[in-house]
Design a protein that fits this description.
This protein has 103 residues and is mainly α. Helices cover 77% and strands 0% of the residues. It has one domain. It is built from four helices and no strands.
C-alpha cells in the first residue's frame, strides 16, 4: 500500500485483533479476504442468474434482449418486474466486473 490507512480507532483495534489471529501474516489475511469476496460475488451471480431464468421464462425474452428493449424505452414502464429485472442485470454486470478484477 502506498498510502497509510485512515481508520477509526474502533476499526483499527478490530484490524489489530484480526492481524493477531493471523500472527501478523498480512499476506494470508488479505488472500483470505479476497477469496471471501470472490465466493460472495459468485454466490450473488448464481442467485441473479436464477432470477434471470424466472423472468426469461415468464416474459419469453433473454435478459440481454430485455435490457436492450428496456433501455430503449420499448417496454411498458409500469411493470414493476421490469425495474427489478433491469436492476438485477446492472448488479450482475457490476458483480461480473468485480469478479474479473479479482481472479
Amino acid at each position: 500500500m502506498d498510502a497509510p490507512l485512515s481508520l477509526s480507532d474502533n476499526t483499527n483495534d478490530r484490524l489489530n485483533k484480526l492481524l493477531s489471529l493471523y500472527r501478523n501474516d498480512m499476506d494470508k489475511l488479505v488472500n483470505e479476504l479476497i477469496n471471501y469476496k470472490i465466493r460472495e460475488l459468485r454466490k450473488g451471480i448464481r442467485t441473479i442468474e436464477r432470477d434471470f431464468y424466472s423472468y426469461e421464462q415468464k416474459y419469453e425474452l433473454s435478459t440481454t434482449e430485455f435490457y436492450s428493449l428496456f433501455e430503449d424505452g420499448k417496454l411498458d414502464d409500469t411493470n414493476n418486474d421490469y425495474y427489478i429485472w433491469s436492476g438485477e442485470y446492472e448488479t450482475y454486470i457490476e458483480f461480473k466486473q468485480e469478479l474479473n478484477q479479482l481472479v
